[in-house]
């Protein structure tokens, strides 16, 4: 499936994070959020991250997707130190290696479903004639091919979430970072999303980090972690 950007074959971990810390600064001082997170993820692994609201789960995903800088620590992706890449190389990493499902879906409201999925392909310089088939295939995975020309602002909450998942899949990324992708879905659609992820991971070279509050979602994963007081514990 991953012929867009052939995934380098590796034996070791895809993601290796050590002593990662993150604090936010605001007018009142410094807010420590992550205090020495360690995490190792292998190709094909599905990893769940749970934890109370405000514990830093989204912050961790943002750092893994290079959408937010870490305060300190080390992050190797396929053995490469990605925290210290140039801005251009970080953008290239995001475009080619990562599929992100944001907690709030973040669709382009005035665009169609098709245009929402086309954006990452344009950004990754996929040729125009190759785009429709990829977009339809990603939408079929989430049973939304019939919504192709529908404006995003007329979708239901669950449909939006499924479009957000399809958008993360369309570029055939090497790691999918999904922030509560089933939070607004009924059991059946939540199950469908997890079965999709399982099928993709079973091919062996893509990994998934999924933030969830749902123990049934976590049970679909190979390993579950809990983020508490800035530290990640395997449960
Ligand atoms: N840009 C920011 N500036 C300051 N503080 C922030 C910022 N973003 C997040 N925080 C704080 O960092 C902490 C962790 O936020 P984060 O969004 O990572 O939590 P979360 O575990 O994803 O929570 P939830 O389950 O509610 O989505 C919270 O206390 C939040 O208020
Ligand atoms: Mg969050």
Describe this structure in words.
This protein has 235 residues and is of the alpha/beta class. It has one domain: P-loop containing nucleotide triphosphate hydrolases (Rossmann fold), CATH 3.40.50.300. It has helices at residues 57-64, 87-97, 113-123, 131-141, 157-169, 187-202, 215-219, and strands at 15-26, 29-41, 46-50, 72-77, 80-81, 98-101, 175-179, 207-211, 223-228, 231-234. The strands form two sheets. Strands 6-7-8-3-9-10 form a six-stranded mixed beta sheet, sandwiched between helices. Strands 2-1-4-5 form a four-stranded antiparallel beta sheet, covered by helices on one side. A hairpin with a 2-residue loop joins strand 1 (15-26) and strand 2. 43% of the residues are buried. The mean pLDDT is 93. The structure holds adenosine-5'-triphosphate and magnesium ion.
Provide the descriptors you would attach to this structure in a database record:
7 helices, binds magnesium ion, four-stranded antiparallel sheet, 10 strands, Rossmann fold, binds adenosine-5'-triphosphate, 235 residues, alpha/beta, globular
Short description:
This protein has seven helices and ten strands. The chain has 235 residues and is α/β, with parallel strands linked by helices.
User: How many independent structural domains?
Assistant: 1
Percentage beta strand = 25-35%
> How many DSSP-defined strands?
10
Uncertain stretches of 5 or more adjacent residues: none
CATH class identity: Alpha Beta
- CATH architect. name: 3-Layer(aba) Sandwich
Write the CATH fold name.
Rossmann fold
* Assigned CATH superfamily: P-loop containing nucleotide triphosphate hydrolases
Q: Which strands sit side by side, in order, in the main sheet? A: 6-7-8-3-9-10
Distance between the termini: 32 Å
Helix/strand order, N-terminal first: EEEHEEHEHHHEHEHEE
Bound molecules: adenosine-5'-triphosphate, magnesium ion
The biggest beta sheet is recorded as: 6 strands, mixed
